[in-house]
Amino acid sequence: DHVYSRSVILADIIEQDIAQEGMRVIFNIPNQKMNILEVELSPTSAAVGKTLAEYKFPGKTRVVLIIHNNGSTEVPRGSSIMLEGDQLLLVTTSDDYDEIFNKLVKN
To answer: Is 100 exposed, middle or buried, given 0-12, 13-18 or 19+ CB atoms closer than 10 A?
Structure first.
């Protein structure tokens, strides 16, 4: 038997639907506090022009895929360079959403 809480289900639905311009949750990892988040790097993002090794992502955030603005994809390495308009797929927690948005998307 499973017990479902309406408030927990509603919170999960809302979290999945969080989408700000340039950022959205694309997958909630079951039974974890981690999610996969898609962000698009703004022209003024603090990460533009830096390698993954150079840039300090918030918390335990990890980049799992880079979709470059020219359409090519890259499995990230420390030497991968982030460019304006690139989309990053991140594994992160909701605790880090604001910092991710402010530093990568909004900046």
So the answer is: buried
Domain 6-106 has CATH 1.10.10.10: no
Q: How would residue 53 be classed by pLDDT, with cut points 50, 70 and 90?
A: very high
Residues 14-44: pLDDT tens digits?
555 555 678 988 888 888 889 999 999 999 9
With beta carbons less than 8 A apart as the criterion, state whether 86 and 40 touch: yes
Question: Rounded distance, CA 75 to CA 73, Å?
Answer: 7
The model's pTM is 0.78
